[in-house]
Specification:
The protein is α/β, with parallel strands linked by helices. Helices cover 35% and strands 15% of the residues. It has helices spanning 29-41, 80-88, 90-97, 141-158, 169-179, 227-236, 255-258, 262-265, 280-283, 300-308, 318-324, 336-347, 353-365, 370-385, and strands at 17-21, 50-56, 73-76, 100-105, 118-122, 163-166, 186-188, 210-214, 243-247, 268-270, 288-291, 312-315, 328-331. It has a 7-stranded parallel β-sheet with strand order 3-2-1-4-5-6-7, with helices on both faces. A 6-stranded parallel β-sheet has the order 10-9-8-11-12-13, sandwiched between helices. It is globular, with a radius of gyration of 22 Å.
């Protein structure tokens, strides 16, 4: 497909450009999605346009081997004031000098841009549209104030986007309502499971102790800080040695909560941050994938568990119910007793794991793969270059 471009939109360059913006993604599941996205972008033809990439200046994405010339790459500072200056100066010059007419932000609030540039923003900030979440009650007031100020800035920036892409209808409704966006400006484009995970029978099924996998960093909304108390409840019920918490962060994240409790600490296996391409190794050890988060859009964990044939234990929240349906067991993430009860049901073999896995496989079939998802984005971005109004 060759883009039709009007001279007024090409800027100084004879060939229009598309800028792929990954500058706001440094950690977490967004990195894995970004790596898959980058792999997919450069596996297809982009006739009639030039590609440019904006990456963060640190982290796994910063080391991605880009398949574009150095002149088509830009690194965004992570420090707030430096980033603000960069966005208003270096970035704007880069956009003008390279005839960039479309910016595609994978996940973020978008970038500042001129009137002749179309901004397509993928949003995965549930934190900006869940004002009623229990998350806020458990956050120190200074941290909560800083976060609310940051959220207000994100909402203002989103208003400047031409199209906003979300992953679920519940996010579409919430983002539109909380940001004051017209509903027809917010498009739903479901995610695709990672290519870094294999579809295979689960190797850990007959191995004990029961391993509960937590793939997250220590961010407060992930509620990992609840786990030491959960472990103590399970030990009190007589489950010593029958369970293990496998966690993809460092032990210092829960050092205070586990201090002086060797019995509980002995049931934790901290692996530290795991590279996106190595995620399969953790699923190979897991019996249950647990996500106790108060805030999610469409967690990678859900899709990964479906693909790896691992059952889910997740937060009883609207986003999880809509996404996971009958593929998960639900719990209140701030009710330690209930979490322990649900986990003990897995330990004692009281959960119909086969049913959960089958329901997850069925839901996975309704999602496309990375290539089909990229096909839709590819067509949508080229239509934006051509000045057409094709939705995603």
């Amino acid at each position: 497909m060759t883009a039709r471009v009007t001279p007024a939109r090409t800027g100084a360059a004879s060939v229009p450009g598309i800028l792929f913006d990954f500058s706001g993604i440094r950690t977490g599941g967004g990195v894995q999605l970004a790596l898959n996205f980058l792999d997919s972008v450069f596996s297809r033809e982009w006739m009639g346009v030039k590609l440019f990439v904006l990456l963060p200046d640190s982290g796994e994405l910063a080391r991605y081997p880009l398949k574009v010339p150095a002149s088509h790459q830009l690194r965004c500072p992570s420090q707030v004031l430096r980033r603000a200056w960069f966005e208003r100066t270096t970035l704007q010059s880069f956009i003008r000098d390279n005839g960039i007419v479309v910016i595609k932000t994978l996940f973020g609030a978008g970038l500042p841009h001129g009137r002749d540039v179309t901004s397509v923003v993928g949003i995965a900030y549930p934190i900006i549209c869940y004002p009623e979440s229990p998350y806020w009650r458990h956050l120190p007031w200074r941290a909560a104030l800083r976060q609310r100020i940051k959220n207000a800035a994100r909402r203002r920036r989103l208003l400047a986007a031409d199209r906003v892409i979300v992953e679920t209808p519940v996010m579409q409704r919430r983002i539109a309502a909380c940001c004051g966006l017209p509903l027809n400006k917010v498009y739903v484009l479901p995610p695709a499971p990672s290519d870094y995970l294999n579809t295979a029978s689960h190797a850990a099924a007959d191995v004990r102790p029961v391993t509960f996998l937590f793939l997250s960093g220590p961010s407060p909304h992930k509620n990992l800080w609840r786990l030491p108390a959960v472990a103590r409840r399970m030990l009190a019920s007589g489950a010593a040695g029958r369970f293990r918490f496998l966690i993809s962060c460092n032990a210092d994240a829960l050092a205070n909560e586990l201090k002086g409790d060797a019995a509980a600490a002995g049931h934790f296996d901290f692996r530290g941050a795991v590279a996106s391409r190595d995620i399969q190794s953790l699923y190979d050890e897991a019996h249950v994938l647990v996500n106790l988060s108060d805030l999610e859009s469409f967690s990678n964990n859900y899709m990964e568990a479906w693909k790896a044939n691992v059952p889910l234990l997740v937060s009883d929240r609207d986003f999880a119910r809509e996404i996971c349906g009958e593929s998960a067991i639900y719990c209140e993430p701030h009710n330690v007793g209930q979490i322990a009860e649900r986990m003990l049901a897995f330990v004692h073999g009281q959960v119909d794991v086969a049913r959960l896995v089958a329901n997850g496989v069925a839901r996975l079939r309704h999602l496309g793969n990375q290539d089909t998802r990229m096909d839709r984005i590819h067509a949508m971005l080229l239509s934006c270059v051509a000045g057409e109004g094709v939705p995603c």
